[in-house]
Every structure is written in C-alpha cells, then in structure tokens.
Specification:
7 strands, about 10% strand, two-stranded antiparallel ribbon, alpha+beta, about 300 residues, rod-shaped, about 55% helix, 9 helices, 3 domains, YaeB-like fold
C-alpha cells in the first residue's frame, strides 16, 4: 500500500506539472497560435463586411435612382467576406471548446488521482486503528500519519494508554490540543516497500531462567496477557504488568535491527549479553533476540533483583 500511495502521488504531481505547462504542449500551443491569428483577423473581416454592406446600400440607392445597375459582383463579394467571417468565428469557438474540454479532462484526472491518494491514506489510518501491532507499525514506518493514526486508534481503543510509546496522546472525546507526554527512546522511521506485505510477526517466548524451558505465547494481546499471567502465577510473580510488557515487546519488534542492536545489554552476571527492556519503574525484561527467525525470548525480573548482579 505504501508504494501504491507513492505512485499515485507521483502521478498527481506529473499531472499538475502538465496542467501548469498546458499551454506549452505542442498541439495546444498550435491551437492557441491559430486562435490569436484568427482574433487578429476578426476586426479586419468585420470592417470589410461593414464596408460591403455600406457599398451595397449605396448601390441599392443608385439602382433605385437608375444611376447604377450592375451591383451583382459587389454583392457576391459581400457574401464571400461574410462567409469568411463566419468561418473564422466558428473556428475560434471550436478552438476555445477544444481547449476547455482538454483542460476539464486534465482537471478531472487530477481530481480522481487525489481521491485515490486520500483513499490510500484513509485505508492506512483505518488499518492502524485495528490493533496495537498495526498502530506501532505505522508509527515506525509512516511517521507522517502518526497523529491521524493515534486519533483513530484511541477512538476504537479509548481505554489504552499510549504514553509509553508515543510522545503525543490525543483525547478521543474532544478536539483540544494534544497532551505532551515524556518522549521515550526515539524510534527512527524505516521505509518498508509494501505495507500490504508487512514482515512476518514476531514470536514471543517467556522463560524464568537462561537455561530453563521456554513457553511460546500467543500473538494476540488478550491471549498473550492471559497466558503470561498464568505463567507468572507459577513463580509468584503476578504483579508484573502483563499488558505493558506486551506493548513493550511489540514496540521492540517494530524497531529497526540497528535500534535493537543498540539496546542496553547485560554486561555481567546472567543472562549475559541479553538486552534490557524497562517495563515501568519496577520491572525489567531481559531479551534474547533472534533476528533470523524473528523470535524474542524474555525473562521477567523485578528491578531490585535485576540490579543485584548487573
């Protein structure tokens, strides 16, 4: 969808350039030159017609007075001149009509392309409002749509607090100015060729020790939270905010590879080399990230314990 939107935008710009340079088109320029030539001839033709009319009136008078009887040739001259004037006038009208029609076609084409571009925009915003994964993908890959995407998402999910991933949160109940929130680590936009074919979703696994078994969690938020809470209850760690942990993991998944590589990591103690993800002020997740298979294994740990050995 991203490339389709870009293609439509480029087509619109080309059409606008064509419209701005419409008079420079060889065919149009030829028509306009002909139009100017005809317009310059019209006064002369009109004067000539008027002169013939005056001469005919004089001949009629002379004929009535039997002073002159051969005015047939002059009458034919008047008719011929009148015909030329009519042909020039008709041609001028035809040129103006052709110019008007071609301009209307160009403007209508631009209008339709503008509608297509707007539809692409609306489709992206609607897609972003469907769920949290879509929203974070838009925030990272289509930063120009950020404000509209957030508004759409909050209208559909008013209970969600986006301050952990977005510096601006809009209230769906009013059109007031956005509330500024503390900005987290800045996420750079990564251009993806086709929005219609986003990368494969990440798989998430929870573990409670570097060498312990790992449990795969569902990708949907509701099921993820439910199964994570169940797993946490088995180790008496039920106070970890599962919903926030889900959002944070999705946020990490939508980072660029370079951003994930630049995350803080455990330098001493276990699990050494794992990335460190803050979940609120009281919790940490240690992450083992498999870029090739798009898998993230996370080990929850209270902050006070996280700093005992790290």
């Amino acid at each position: 969808m991203a490339s389709r939107h870009q293609q439509v935008s480029e087509e619109i710009e080309q059409l606008k350039r064509k419209k701005n340079g419409f008079r420079e088109d060889p065919n149009i320029a030829k028509l306009l030159a002909e139009k100017e030539r005809i317009k310059k001839q019209l006064p002369q033709l009109k004067d000539l017609v008027q002169m013939h009319k005056e001469e005919t009136a004089m001949y009629d008078q002379w004929k009535a007075e039997k002073l002159y009887t051969s005015d047939e040739w002059e009458l034919r001259e008047e008719e011929a001149t009148q015909k030329k004037l009519q042909e020039a006038t008709d041609r001028l009208s035809a040129i103006e009509e052709q110019y008007r029609q071609e301009m209307e076609v160009l403007q209508e084409t631009i209008h339709k392309k503008e509608q297509r571009r707007q539809q692409c925009h609306d489709d992206k915003i609607a897609w972003a409002g469907q769920n949290y994964i879509h929203l974070t993908w838009i925030l990272n890959n289509e930063p120009s749509y950020k404000d509209d995407a957030i508004r759409c998402y909050q209208l559909q999910h008013p209970e969600d607090n986006l301050s952990d991933i977005c510096p601006i949160v809009f209230s769906p109940q009013s059109n007031s100015s956005p509330v500024r929130m503390p900005r987290p680590n800045k996420v750079a936009a990564v251009v993806v060729p086709e929005m219609a074919s986003p990368p494969q979703p990440w798989k998430f696994y929870v573990t409670f020790g570097e060498h312990q078994s790992r449990k795969e969690l569902p990708s949907t938020q509701k099921q993820f939270i439910k199964e994570l809470q169940t797993a946490l209850s088995t180790v008496d760690y039920e106070h970890l905010p599962a919903k926030l942990a889900y959002k944070k993991l999705i946020w990490v998944g939508n980072m660029s590879v370079q951003q994930r590589q630049e995350m803080d990591k455990v330098l001493k103690g276990e699990p050494i080399g794992w990335k460190i993800l803050h979940v609120g002020k009281k919790h940490r997740l240690f992450l083992f990230i498999d870029e090739t298979n798009r898998q993230i294994v996370f080990l929850p740990c209270p902050r006070k314990n996280a700093y005992l050995d790290h």
